[in-house]
Amino acid sequence: MLIDDEERMLELLTLYLKPYPYFCRKAVGAKAGLKFVKEEKFDLILLDIMMPEMNGWEVCREIRQYSDVPIIMVTAREQKEDIVKGLKLGADDYITKPFNEEELVARMDALLRRTRPVNRIEVERLLWDEDQFELSYKKQLVKLTPKEFAIIGLLMKNPGRVFSRNQLIDLVWGIHSETEGRTVDSHVRNMREKIRKVGFPIDDYFHTVWGVGYKWIRK
């Protein structure tokens, strides 16, 4: 849910999020946003502070009376007292305009991971189980290395999102790793072959985006 009194900002946010697996509901102004939140269920709210009819702090306070939906305050104000006020009223995070698109998406992803942990994912009987550290298909165990297990889990958790090789290195190997892109490709190739051998149609779901990276297709 995007709540802002400026239609231009709503369109810009929608454009930013279009390449990612987010469906955006836009609300022009506080009252329209509150109406939507009361009528529908949302995974996350991006909420502007400086709105004329009712500011974002008031909106946040009202939402918290009946919902614990994650809220990120989006505003041009960056004074420390404004940040503290928003967090005290129940906001989960805060980002100031102008913001970097990748930072916004990273904050959204991190907040969703904290508030909605996903430890088990099943697609056509292919089961990724983080707690057991196992990948299986029709109860056949697929023996993956820790890095292979992490890569497929990351993509299955984020269907439709393209991860570049550098992003996978940062997320799986760590930001200080000296791992190269061809190492990622080698892990992906081995993982695909192992999963293909147990009969799962991995190539229908795990796609290479040439020149960019990899993504998991939601069917």
UniProtKB/TrEMBL annotation:
The highest taxon in the source lineage is: Bacteria
All copies of the Response regulatory domain together span 1-112
**SMART domains, A to Z:** REC, Trans_reg_C
The entry's cellular-component GO terms read: cytosol; protein-DNA complex
Instruction: Drop me one GO molecular function for this one.
Output: transcription cis-regulatory region binding
DNA bind region? 118-218
Q: Does the keyword Transcription regulation apply?
A: yes
Q: Which Pfam families match?
A: Response_reg, Trans_reg_C
Which residues are annotated as modified residue 4-aspartylphosphate in the UniProt record?
48
InterPro entries with a match to the protein in the record: CheY-like_superfamily (IPR011006), OmpR/PhoB-type_DNA-bd (IPR001867), Sig_transdc_resp-reg_receiver (IPR001789), WalR-like (IPR039420), WH-like_DNA-bd_sf (IPR036388)
Q: Name one GO biological process term.
A: regulation of DNA-templated transcription
- Whether Transmembrane counts among this entry's keywords is no
Q: Which UniProt keywords apply?
A: DNA-binding, Phosphoprotein, Transcription, Transcription regulation, Two-component regulatory system
Per UniProt, residues of the OmpR/PhoB-type domain are: 118-218
User: What CDD domains does its record include?
Assistant: REC_OmpR, trans_reg_C
Q: What is this protein called?
A: Response regulator transcription factor
**Protein species of origin:** Macrococcus carouselicus
